[in-house]
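Continuing from the previous page of notes. For each protein in this section, the sequence appears first, followed by its structure tokens. Read the first protein now.
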Amino acid sequence: MNHTVEDLSLLNALRQGDGNAFDHLFRRYYPMLCAYAHRLVSLEDAEEIVQEVMLWLWENRGDLIIESSLNQYLFKMTYRRVLNHLTREQVKTKAEAAFYESTQAALCEVDYARFEELDRKIKEAMAALPDSYREAFVMHRFKELSYKEIAEVLDVSPQTVAYRIQQALKLLRVSLKDYLPMLVWLVG
């Protein structure tokens, strides 16, 4: 045994359930153990780990058999807890990464399927428009012609062009009402 006289005294008092001995031991070792653990983990995790070590020490005080010095024992115990923590974090990180990848893949598949469905529905809705509405709408939205330019091509008034585009939009909104959130997202 490599105990100092003070450590032996503290251990004996601790085994007897002396709260003052535990308090003294805690104040003496807590900062050193936190600094030691903090070299490998965040300060918050280090403090939590050292608190767990100290709690374990108190809860198992009656059964303590320390063959090395109390100092070595506490540092070794803290080191093991830090390693366990790092292992758990590593496993958790790998699990989260795997979950993220599988979720992203699933979302991409769903999104692709939804976009294909949306594309099909838009084509169907466009095909269902009266020819004059569809013609004015396509010229304005896809060929980016002004109402005046469309009116000249179709040989109608700009007000007629405006009416046809307005009616086309109204019919498309009704046909594609289930897809409006997706359309807003795509356009926005």
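Done with the first. The second protein uses the same format. Note its length before scrolling.
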Amino acid sequence: IKRQNIDILNINVAEITDQYMAYVELMESSQFELAAEYLVMAAMLAEIKSKMLLPRQEDLEAEEEDPRMELIRRLQEYERFKNAAAQLDELPRMNRDYHRAVAMPPKLERVTIDPEVDLKEVLISLAQVLRRADMFGSHQINRETLSTREKMSELLVRINDKKFVPLSSLLIREEGRLGVVVTFLAVMELLKGSMIEIVQSEPFAPIHVKAKTLSEQPILSSDFDDDQETDQEAVQ
């Protein structure tokens, strides 16, 4: 219809049918499915042609629809779909009008530049570190070695008021366990030398200690000195 510039509303059905049938005969040899679709259209054209050739009654002519209108509607619908397909085909298409760019990113190497350091700044930082080190400095204090002889003299001074004192009051907490042992040995040595007096009112009652007077104390012998040195070595 477009090739011969025919008005679609005024179709010569006989001419179009002959041309269409000739085209179908050419298509039958290769594409059967397409030829079948064309045969449907050819049958409709033949029906229209037969209706156009048959005489019609005048009273029914006004009521009946022109048999060519169905063909016209189909051709108009076909033209709309064809135009829509052409418009879709004009849209940009991947791998036809443009292609996806594939590019590997460049390998970047980060170069770190060493900062310039002034010798004066280094010395200032060193001085600050040394000052902080002095703030947190520490030293270890070693505990003095306890002597049984010195503890004996200390006990005699503390109980030299001629009164009984509890044995527990003679212990010094800061001296720890070693101080308790040395104090106990000193008391035993003083008791052995008859330089102190120990009393206990009942079993498991507190023990009290009192120093004897000079007239009551015997003279210390050399054996006593040797025993003191032996006890001191044992404590150490």
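What the second structure shows: The first strand starts at residue 165 and ends at 166. DSSP finds eight helices and three strands in the chain. We return to this in next week's lecture.
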